[in-house]
Write a structure and sequence with these properties.
The protein has one domain (2-106). The protein has helices spanning 2-6, 10-18, 23-52, 57-98, 100-106. With 123 residues, the chain is an all-alpha fold. Helix 2 runs parallel beside helix 4 (57-98) and helix 3 (23-52) runs antiparallel to helix 4. The protein contains five helices and no strands.
């Protein structure tokens, strides 16, 4: 899932380098990125549900949602400034490089193999 949400960012590297004039190519590239984002975001939501499990699920999920929003808001605060300094071509290369920590961190995440499976007691 980490691949699904991060690798499609490379589509924007292609778009910034090739500058295609064909709208079909642009639309396909954006569709690939959106599909990957949706697929990866679903995994992130499930992980938030997994982390929130316990006696105060709603409060924990709200905190997780706040961290998620912060993770989108803080980079957005300086992304325009960074793009103006390094240009679109280098900006999207930087975005792809910035995804490397998420690949590293996911190696250390331990998820219960029974999470999300229907148990005999619940059936």
């Amino acid at each position: 899932m980490v691949i699904a949400i991060n690798v499609p960012d490379a589509v924007y590297v292609y778009l910034s380098q090739a500058l295609p004039q064909n709208m079909l190519i642009v639309n396909i590239a954006v569709a690939i990125e959106q599909f990957g984002y949706g697929f990866g975001f679903t995994a992130y939501m499930l992980y938030m549900i997994y982390v929130s499990d316990g006696p105060h699920k709603t409060a924990h999920f709200a905190i997780c949602t706040g961290f998620m929003a912060m993770g989108m808001m803080l980079p957005g605060m300086f992304s325009g400034w960074l793009q103006e300094i390094i240009g679109y071509q280098h900006f999207f290369i930087w975005v792809v490089i910035a995804t490397i920590p998420s690949f590293v961190v996911t190696k250390f995440i331990k998820i219960d193999t029974n999470f999300g499976k229907k148990s005999e007691a619940a059936a």
